[in-house]
From TrEMBL, chain A:
It comes from the Bacteria. Coiled coil: none annotated. This is Permease. The chain crosses the membrane at residues 12-29, 58-78, 103-123, 156-182, 189-208, 228-250, 271-287, 311-335, 356-384, 399-421, 428-446, 466-490. Keywords: Membrane, Transmembrane, Transmembrane helix. It comes from Acetivibrio saccincola.
TrEMBL record, chain B:
Keywords: ATP-binding, Nucleotide-binding. Signal peptide: none annotated. This is Multidrug ABC transporter ATP-binding protein. InterPro entries: AAA+_ATPase, ABC_transporter-like_ATP-bd, ABC_transporter-like_CS, P-loop_NTPase. GO terms for molecular function: ATP binding; ATP hydrolysis activity. It comes from the Bacteria. Residues 4-211 form the ABC transporter domain.
C-alpha cells in the first residue's frame, strides 16, 4: 500500500494520548494502596505487581479502555466507507479485512499507550524478571497477583498472554462491527451495539453467577479473570478464537446473495443435521460424567467408546453408527455424483479411470481427516468447559493415535468398501445398505475375535488395553486387499452407469 | 449476449416499493440515460447494477455472471454514486492516487493526464477542501474513468458544472463511448440526456419505461 492509503486510513492521532490520562490516574490510585499492603504482610512489591494491578483491572478494561477502542473503531469504520473504494476492492469481504488491518494498528497503538501509562506510574519500583512475594499472599483483594503467580511461572509470559487475550477479543468485536456496517451501513447501529455491549459487560461482571463463566465479558478481557474462572489458561483463548473463526466465516461469505445462502443452507441441511447429532451425542456423554472426577481424555474415550468384545452398550453402538457410518453416508452421496452419467464425460477427459478416481478421492481423504480432528478438538473443548480435569494420562499418545490413525484407516476401509460395491453393482445405495448390514459384527458375540474390520476404531479398545498398532496392521491389510479389488475393477470391468 | 441484464427484479427500499418484476437488458457500447423524479429509484438501480445491494427478488447479471453468486461486485466499473468523500487536506492528485493504489493499475502520469482531461490540471497542487462543488464533481468523474473502466455508471455527473465544463465532459463521455465504453447516466437536465444518450429510460410504475 502506498503512503496515501496509509494517510486515508490513518486513525492514529497524537490527540489520542489524552486518553492515557485516566489510565495514569487510575494506576496511580492503585499504586497508593501497595505500601500499606507491603507493610501489613511483610512483603516487597516489584515492577510486575504494579503492571498487573492495572493491566488486569477489570474496571479499567471493561468500563474505560475497551469501550473507548470500540467507539474509536466505530467512528473510523463509518468515516472511511466509500462506494468508490468499494467498487475497486471488489467485495465487502475485502473491505472488511482492509478495515480490520487498519483497526489492528489502532489496537496496537492503544495497547502500547496503555502499557506506557502504567509503566510511567510504576516508575521507581524495583525491577526483576521474577514474581515478587506479594503474589504469595492469598487474601481477598490480592486475587489478581495471587492467581497470576499461581498459573504463570514468569510474569513476562503472563503479560504477553494478557496482551494477546485483550487483542484477540478486541479484534473479534471489531470484526463484528465491520460485518454489521457492511451489512447495514448505519453507524447508529454500531453505536447502539457498543452501548449495549457496555451494559452487558457491566451486568455480566456484577450480576452473572460463576456458573455462567462462558458469557461473562471480563473473562475475555482480563487474563486473571479468564484463567481463574475457567481454571485453565487456554480456555478463554479457545473460546474467543472460536467466535473469531465464526465471524471470519461470516465475513468470507458476506458477499453471497442471502437468497443463495438460504438455498445453500437448505442443500446442506443433512450435513447440519449430522453435525447436530454428533454434538448432541458428545454433549450427552460428557454431561453424563460431569461430576465423575474424570479427566478430559477419559471423557473423550467414553464418548467414542463404540463396542469391543467386552464392552457393549446400545447408546455407544448407536453413537458409533451415527458418527462414523453417518460420515460414510455423506461420502456415498458424493459418490452418487461422481458415478452419475456425467462420469462418462469426466472420465474421457482424464483418459484413464485411475486418473479420474484420483481427481476426487483425495478430497474424501481430506474430509475424513478434518472430521476426525474436529471431533477430537470439539470433544476435548466441551469436556474442558464442563469442568473435566486436565490430567494427562500415560497413554495419551495411544489415545490420540487410535482415534486419528485407526479412525482414519477404519473410515478409509468403509469408504473403499462402498466404492467397490457401487462400482461392481452400479448402485450406490446398495453399497451403503451392505455396509450397514456389516455392523452386525459390532454386536456382542459376533466380533469373531476382532477379525472383521468393522468398528475397530472404537475407543473401548484403548480402555481394554488392546494393542492399537495391531488394529492398524489389520486395517492396513484389509485396505490393501480392497485396493487390489478396486484396481481390478477399474481395469477389467466395463464401466456402465 | 446482453452486457447487463436485470431479470424479474423487485426491490423495496426503506419500506417503499421501487421496482416490481423489472426485466431489462443493456447492450455494450451504448449510452443509456435514466430519468425519473427524486426518490424514484435511480440510485438504487445503479447500486443493484454494481452489486452494492441485492434485489429482493430476481437477479442482476453482468457479463453473463449473476452478482452475488461467485462474484459480489462486477469488474471494470467506474461509478459516481452518492457524493464521494475526499481527503480534504490532500490534493486532487493525491486523492486519485489513493484510489488507484487499491488496484495499482495506473501510473502517476496517467492520473495527471486524466486530471487534464476533466479540466483539473491547473489545480494539481490545490487541496480538495478548497475545491468548488464543480471541481469536486470533475474529480468524481476523473476517478470513474481513470482506470479505463469499461462500464460507467454516473449518477448526476453534470451537477455543479459550469457551461464550458458541461460541454467538455459531454465531449469526454462521447469520446469514451466511441472507444466502446458503455455509459449509464442520470441527469435532471433533459439536454444532457437528449444530446448524449442512445437510449433513454424513465423510472415509472415500478419499472423502466423506454422513452428513446
Amino acid at each position: 500500500m502506498s503512503s496515501m492509503i496509509k494517510v486515508k486510513n490513518r486513525i492514529i492521532s497524537w490527540k489520542y494520548l489524552i486518553a492515557a490520562i485516566p489510565i495514569v490516574l487510575y494506576a496511580l490510585s492503585n499504586r497508593q494502596s501497595m505500601p500499606f499492603f507491603e507493610e501489613l504482610h511483610n512483603v516487597t512489591a516489584n515492577f510486575w505487581d504494579y503492571i498487573f494491578m492495572s493491566f488486569s483491572d477489570v474496571y479499567l478494561l471493561l468500563f474505560y479502555f475497551f469501550p473507548l477502542i470500540l467507539f474509536i473503531s466505530t467512528v473510523y469504520i463509518n468515516r472511511t466507507f466509500e462506494y468508490i473504494e468499494l467498487i475497486r476492492l471488489g467485495s465487502y469481504k475485502k473491505w472488511i479485512f482492509t478495515r480490520l488491518e487498519q483497526l489492528f494498528k489502532i489496537d496496537i497503538f492503544f495497547i502500547l499507550m496503555f502499557l506506557g501509562s502504567i509503566l510511567l506510574t510504576s516508575f521507581n519500583t524495583s525491577f526483576s524478571m521474577e514474581w515478587s512475594s506479594v503474589g504469595i499472599i492469598d487474601i481477598s483483594g490480592n486475587e489478581i497477583l495471587y492467581y497470576l503467580r499461581h498459573y504463570f511461572p514468569k510474569p513476562f509470559v503472563a503479560l504477553v498472554l494478557q496482551i494477546g487475550l485483550f487483542l484477540l477479543t478486541t479484534i473479534t468485536f471489531q470484526l463484528m462491527l465491520c460485518i454489521l456496517y457492511a451489512r447495514f451501513k448505519k453507524s447508529s447501529l454500531l453505536h447502539l451495539l457498543n452501548g449495549l455491549m457496555y451494559l452487558y459487560g457491566s451486568i455480566s461482571f456484577k450480576v452473572f453467577p460463576a456458573s455462567m463463566k462462558l458469557i461473562v465479558m471480563p473473562n475475555y478481557l482480563s487474563l486473571f479473570h479468564g484463567v481463574a474462572s475457567f481454571d485453565s489458561i487456554i480456555m478463554p483463548f479457545v473460546i474467543v478464537l472460536s467466535v473469531l473463526l465464526i465471524l471470519i466465516f461470516i465475513a468470507n461469505n458476506i458477499d453471497r446473495d442471502y437468497r443463495n445462502s438460504k438455498n445453500y443452507l437448505m442443500k446442506n441441511l443433512p450435513v447440519l443435521g449430522y453435525g447436530l447429532l454428533c454434538l448432541m451425542g458428545i454433549l450427552f456423554h460428557i454431561s453424563k460424567h460431569t461430576n465423575g472426577g474424570l479427566s478430559i481424555w477419559d471423557g473423550f474415550i467414553v464418548t467414542f467408546m463404540g463396542t469391543t468384545n467386552e464392552i457393549f452398550t446400545l447408546i455407544s453402538f448407536a453413537f458409533y453408527i451415527v458418527v462414523f457410518l453417518g460420515a460414510v453416508y455423506f461420502v456415498q452421496l458424493r459418490l452418487q455424483r461422481y458415478l452419475s452419467e456425467m462420469s462418462y464425460y469426466t472420465m474421457i477427459r482424464y483418459r484413464s479411470i485411475n486418473k479420474w478416481f484420483l481427481s476426487w478421492f483425495p478430497g474424501i481423504l481430506k474430509t475424513i481427516t478434518i472430521l476426525l480432528l474436529t471431533l477430537l478438538i470439539g470433544t476435548i473443548s466441551i469436556a474442558m468447559l464442563k469442568g473435566y480435569s486436565n490430567t494427562v494420562p500415560d497413554n495419551l499418545f495411544e489415545i490420540i493415535y487410535h482415534f486419528i490413525v485407526n479412525g482414519f484407516l477404519q473410515l478409509l476401509f468403509y469408504v473403499i468398501f462402498v466404492i467397490i460395491i457401487s462400482f461392481a453393482t452400479k448402485d450406490v445405495f446398495k453399497s451403503f445398505i451392505t455396509l450397514l448390514t456389516l455392523t452386525v459384527f459390532m454386536l456382542p458375540g459376533f466380533r469373531l475375535k476382532n477379525l472383521m474390520p468393522i468398528g475397530l476404531n472404537s475407543m473401548g479398545y484403548v480402555l481394554e488395553g488392546y494393542p492399537v498398532f495391531l488394529i492398524s496392521i489389520k486395517l492396513a491389510v484389509y485396505i490393501a486387499a480392497e485396493i487390489i479389488v478396486l484396481l481390478y475393477l477399474f481395469n477389467k470391468k466395463d464401466y456402465i452407469v | 449476449m446482453s452486457l447487463i441484464e436485470l431479470r424479474n427484479v423487485s426491490k423495496s427500499f426503506k419500506g417503499l416499493s421501487l421496482f416490481e418484476n423489472l426485466s431489462v437488458s443493456f447492450e455494450k457500447g451504448k449510452i443509456y440515460g435514466i430519468v425519473g423524479h427524486n426518490g424514484s429509484g435511480k440510485s438504487v438501480l445503479f447500486k443493484m447494477m454494481c452489486g452494492f445491494i441485492f434485489p429482493d427478488q430476481g437477479s442482476v447479471i453482468v457479463n453473463g455472471e449473476e452478482l452475488g453468486k461467485n462474484k459480489r461486485f462486477p469488474e471494470n466499473f467506474g461509478i459516481i454514486i452518492d457524493k464521494p468523500g475526499y481527503l480534504g487536506d490532500k490534493t486532487g492528485f493525491e486523492n486519485l492516487r489513493y484510489l488507484a493504489d487499491i488496484q495499482n493499475k495506473i501510473s502517476d502520469e496517467k492520473i495527471k493526464e486524466i486530471l487534464e482531461r476533466v479540466g483539473l490540471s491547473h489545480t494539481i497542487m490545490q487541496k480538495v477542501k478548497n475545491y468548488s462543488l464543480g471541481m469536486k464533481q470533475k474529480l468524481a468523474i476523473a476517478q470513474a474513468i481513470m482506470e479505463d473502466q469499461d462500464i460507467l455508471l454516473l449518477d448526476e455527473p453534470f451537477n455543479g458544472l459550469d457551461v464550458d465544463s458541461v460541454e467538455n465532459i459531454r465531449d469526454l463521455l462521447k469520446s469514451l463511448n466511441n472507444q466502446g465504453k458503455t455509459i449509464f447516466l442520470t441527469s435532471h437536465n433533459n439536454e444532457d440526456i437528449d444530446i448524449l444518450c442512445d437510449h433513454v429510460f424513465r423510472v415509472r410504475n415500478y419499472s423502466l419505461e423506454q422513452l428513446k
